[in-house]
Amino acid sequence: MNLQQLYTDLILEHNQDPRNHRPLTNATVTEHGHNPNCGDDLTMNAIITDGIVEDIAYEGQGCAISQASASMLCDVVRGKSVKEAKACIERFIRLIQREELNEEERESLEEAIVLENVSQLPARVKCAVLAWHTLDEAMKKIEA
């Protein structure tokens, strides 16, 4: 099995059995996102206490890439400070925009790094970044 097949399998795994697709009661931050191009529709919910993302989940539906990306995002930012989470969001957006990341930045994205090749599929870029942009908007509310 080649590396690309492993990446594809990981995306399908997150889509078919998303670890973080669930209601999150007592969410302190909630934001809805929609991608009209593909029909992806999701709501990011997080519990942020003392500047730490204690728990995060999403609800909604969409294509395999949007659902896998949302699930991976939750894994990446859970337990991190809001500042660290925002840095991860910024790195992921840069990755999808084909900007160069150093090894430390790549490692910080954990499994979400497998979505890197989505940048070669312009019609799917919005699918991949929807959850990340949505969470970024949610975090702006706690800064205000």
Automatic annotation (TrEMBL):
Domain of life: Bacteria
A single BP term in Gene Ontology: iron-sulfur cluster assembly
InterPro entries per record: NIF_FeS_clus_asmbl_NifU_N
Stretches for region Disordered: 17-36
GO MF entries: iron ion binding; iron-sulfur cluster binding
Residues covered by the NIF system FeS cluster assembly NifU N-terminal domain: 7-87
Pfam annotation, one family: NifU_N
Family per similarity comment: Belongs to the NifU family.
Protein's name in the database: Nitrogen fixation NifU-like protein
Organism in which the protein naturally occurs: Negativicoccus succinicivorans
Source taxonomy: Bacteria, Bacillati, Bacillota, Negativicutes, Veillonellales
